[in-house]
Write a structure and sequence with these properties.
This protein has about 210 residues and is α+β, with helices and mostly antiparallel strands. Helix content is about 50%, strand content about 20%. It has a 4-stranded antiparallel β-sheet. Strands 2-9-5-6 form a 4-stranded antiparallel β-sheet. The N and C termini lie far apart (about 50 Å).
Length: about 210
Amino acid sequence: MQEHFGMFNQFITKYVKFTEAELADLNEKCTKVYFSKGALIMKAGEIQNNLYFITKGIVRYYVENKESEIKVFNFRSEYMTVTGYALYNYEDNLKALLNVQSLEDCVMIKVPLAVINYVINNIKSGDRLRSSVAEAQVLEMLQHVLDKGTKSVIERYDSLTINFPDINQRVPQYMIASYLGITPVHFSNLKKRRKTVKGIANSKTNC
């Protein structure tokens, strides 16, 4: 219990300066929750009044089109927040824009939006939580769009493995392929070519 809230406290105190009493009060208002592998944490179109902070596990954000095709939008893992909508909007009864599913057994800290609003409105420097986290989210989404439009598939894959170094061990290959916008066969061939290129580069370095 202490370890998980310690991770959460480390994250949130980057944005807001709490007294010990205020931080203890915040922790009491939050809950440690568990999601088994494959659980649907958020469903697009349904109301969500909580934000989650991952202390263990990895999830995928995805959408499903009219043809029932699933498109993976992003992944989130330890020390990251999970929400189905824009973090700059902390109103209650918001509908999630994306589906969120656990890809491993996950442990998270559930933070009610009412608690976030209390921090923003009542804690000194609390409004930094809204501006800082929202800015980070907007930049992440913008980078995702820019990368998809300007980078090659291999470059996007390299960026993904930098952000999630062990993603190939934690996430099914077809989901990574969906994120990259290619078929699983294409992704398998890409990994083989990438491995060959790195092998050649290493050989030249050792010569």
